[in-house]
## 1
Amino acid sequence: MQQTGRKISDLADKLVSAFPGFDLTGQRIAVKLYRLLAEGDPVPVPRLARALNLADETVSAVLSRVPVFYDDQGAVVGFGGLTVAEMPPHVFRVEGRTLYTWCAWDSLFIPSILNKTADVVSRDPITKVPISLTVEPDRVKRISPKGSVVSFLTPDRAFDQSVIVNFCHFVHFFISQEAGRAWTARHAGTFLLSVEDAYALGQLTNARNFGEALTTRVER
């Protein structure tokens, strides 16, 4: 099931094409928003703008072009696969804070954006068996069960506010290829990736989507 580097690169191209492109300012906004959300609370747009020394209007204009979810006060609660709202089954713990990801793959690429280690707990939708991982910024350190895999779907449309229904609902962890194949056989267009390939795919898409903004110092 291990994919060739060429196939992973081609899939990265398709994923990046489905995501609205960022200029340098947009990249800074996106990375900072991920890192503020990882603190565990909704992020008001003015707070995000102040953190980057940008106008509120500039930040709002960038966020208007990408899938973002807000609370009743207008603060961001979900962005780019990460949310502070309870959203099982993909639990994503960073520095003792409990967050959630929209799909299995999000939990593999977001630690590199945060430059922090995440402990992930999910559940196989076929067997209902729990799956746990420790994902560091530069590798998947641990996964249990060891034979776990990830289902995937090549995007056939641009990511918008319906991304969770149109993409994320097809991307899960499974405890084995057998369990994964039982699920993909019933969902047209889906296929399996090893956890290692899914992680490598995330590294490629991170670099292409967020560029030099990823090297910004993480405040402690």
## 2
Amino acid sequence: MKNVLCILLDGFEELEAVGTIALLKRAGINVDIATDGEIEATGRYGITLSNIYNLNNLDYKNYDMLFVPGGPHYAKILKNDLYLNIIKYYFETKSISTICAGPTILGKLGLLKGKRYTCFESMNEDFGGTYLGTYAVKDENMITGKSAAATIDFGFMIIEYLLGEEKALEIKKQIYYKD
């Protein structure tokens, strides 16, 4: 079984977080949601996820991939050394997926240099890589998504990366998704 760690703080984008998590779980991927010092996090539209893990009580290195949803919480992540260390660890040693405002964290850390990526279009800066306007982009061990509207394509790209094309097609068929 593949395991994904999802980190978030108050202000995360609910559609990106919950939609992606639901698709991954539907595919049989274990997803643990964690935040720093709390057991819940409230999204930008007031939806609260509860009974989530405290990062301080979790070995964050025991997962196959890190998932960082977008939303206004990205600004808080940029100021949090624990989150930044986790992001760097997964980028350098395993795999990372992030959507909307999330890829800008990678850009501000200098991790998008020479990479193909996407992010919320108005947040794209000269991060030293190649911005693509598509819904989801894979470059080696990194998957980026453009916006909340890209959640399904982004989720399927993660499923295909972790479990293969056959599993992604199986889940697409289950939810009547058409490319």
